[in-house]
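3.2 Worked example (two chains)
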Amino acid sequence: MWNIPHFLIFSFTGFIMKSIIIAAPYSGSGKTTVTLGIMECLRRRGLKVAPFKVGPDFIDPGYHRLVAGRPSINLDGWMCGAEFVRETFARHVQDADIAVIEGVMGLFDGISGAGDEGSTAQIARLTGSPVILVLDTKSMARSAAAMVKGFAEFDPELNLAGVIFNNVASDNHGRILREAVEGSLPTVKVLGCIPRDEMLHIPSRHLGLLTADENSLAPEFLDRLAETIRTSVDMGMLWSVATQRWSLEAANGNRKGPGKPEVVRIALARDAAFSFVYEDNLRLLREAGAEIVEFSPLLDERLPDDVCGIYLPGGYPEVFADTLAANGAMRDAVRAAIEAGMPAYAECGGFIYLTRGVVDAKCEAASLHELVGVFPITTRMLPRRKALGYREIETVADSIIGPQGSVARGHEFHYSEMGAMPDSVERLYRVRKNGVDLGAEGFRHKNCIASYIHLHFGSCPDLARTFVENCKKYKN
């Protein structure tokens, strides 16, 4: 099915790069499974795949990294803006043969109904990538053509180049789907029909799929997935519809600042409990002079040596609350560092870790799992989602991440709530959602800032530079 001339594969290395974006009409269509299968097939063919994820998701990029063997980069037009999206996309594809971008929600779903900001469609335009639509065809036959036609014609400037039918019941079902689309939409290539297979299901929990740290994709799963894609999708045709671009464009996006900055070591919590971090946040910190040193609040008993700052990202601390609580040595080390004035930045799960503890509200007899206790409140897990959506913050005072009036964007998603924060704890953020004031958040204790909001430093690169500068001040 491949039909890729060997001289073309050779010429792509270092000279030409291709890109595709895997989208769907709605969430739950099978985008992640199809994306992983395509990445695995390309990788097994010897190609270098640069993985990307549209939107603020943290879980899918973890799976991309397992398959592609390199970090997956979030692309978000609302949080970071068009210039940053183009620049970071160009930067991260420089040594790749093909970029595979997984979309978010439905193709045109973004921050509002009036435009495509924050959507997969916006990223398709900004990166110049053709769209391959994954359509779940369970309980659907010829009507699939009407749906594809609607998506193809909704935005004439978008290149919907192909469709992959998922959950196909039989060969006859696939024949009907092909006939329907090929007869009415000759410009949209039918790339394949993937049969129903419960063995390819990835387990999930309240925030989405299980993380890659907990479900590392067994070789047997990847073998089955790759074989399914190989036999069900015309990879040669997929290769032919992928956009071709010269890597010189990527080189132009690789901007370097003057000189080599002084290096300061910053401890990053990264394990099964803390894995929700934007790779570009870490890149911007490194470019500002940070040496990122990973540690595990689950397994380690102390912070890494000679660190002058702490970054506590989100994740699932509630799932590992008993282990975190039992690791008193690490809790004491983090608390002591913050009380000594070390700069610390925590978001969502990292914020939970800094409270007195966490309790599961679904269990009446649940006991409190004691955590760091920098913030004098308790976290309760809830059976329903508490918050979801984009946020914009503005700082109301100078801080370790920027001067008063710094504006940044991020995302909030959690199934927990905290008790009322005492008035004695400073509020650093004014928070807005779609222009509506949500009040004060972003809590500060000494040089520690904690919030439920995952800020993307690409929305305000000065956040990374200022944080690193304050870590240097602490060092000196």
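3.2.1 Second chain
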Amino acid sequence: MNNMKGEINQKNINKTVLVTGGAGFIGSNTVRLLCDRGYKVIVFDNLSTGYRHFVDNRAQFIKGDLRNSKEINKALKEVDYVFHFAATSIIKLSLEDPVGCYTNNIIGAINLLEGMRKNKVQHLVNSSSAAVYGESKKGLIGEDSVKKPLQPYGSSKLAIEAILSSYYYAYGINSSSLRYFNVFGPFDEQQPVTRAVPNWIKAILENEPILLYWKGNQLRDYIFVEDVALAHLAVMKLKGFNYFNIGSGKGILMIDLLESIFKAIGKKTEIVDLGERPGDPMHLVADTSKINDTVGWTVKFSLHEGLNKTIDYYRSKFNNK
């Protein structure tokens, strides 16, 4: 599969999907896929970390904040499905301001669910995280592995899943939480930049040093953003309270990932080791058999394909400076 586009399903044309955080990295990629598939899309975003120009021009845009219950309640009128991406997602910021992280993530999710309950919206796909697991033993991490979040961000995501469970059993709101492992791809313009792939690509293109933690010995599971977007559509109509890992199912050492990026770009720059980093598990690789068995979702893009697409995106930005 070379792109996210597919045949427009006529059944989708009259269905409306509200996407919170749809001006951000994963959200904007998913909005484009929804539009390609014929859905009517409403993006709800306060633009605190997203970008208005990332929103597909086929989608309706509402500037609003989930902490304002009136704004989200109004936006949910005549909506069929909700994709929830809006959150404080930078681990460093959650460590610096845990109260802000919990307020934004948990109160925002509750306001969204209350709006759904009042407007009788019955289907939610929630953006969760592998950060709910914390440190793990060697081997693949299954959905029912022990959960010991290492930072406020991870614990906020785990708390939201518990809230989703209660809203299903108490009010019948169906939800599927997707626990992302390491997502990368175009339109990742996080500020401040903390994710390794965009950070390293930009540094190499600009002949700047690479900042590396733990000597690159962390084992990670990297998945291309278009595969993540496809996972959302795969589970959007499921009933019940569900949770799935979203990853490639393959681990790669960070130092090996860096070497792959060097090779794809065709040059190397200096590496600066920054030592240890708090809240950083050493081993995080997904078992994705549950979502595969449930809806047939599997990864379509190899790491090599994804890196090339991502490098092309940042190279075009670099060349247009």
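3.3 Remarks
Residues 13-319 form a domain with the Rossmann fold fold (CATH 3.40.50.720).
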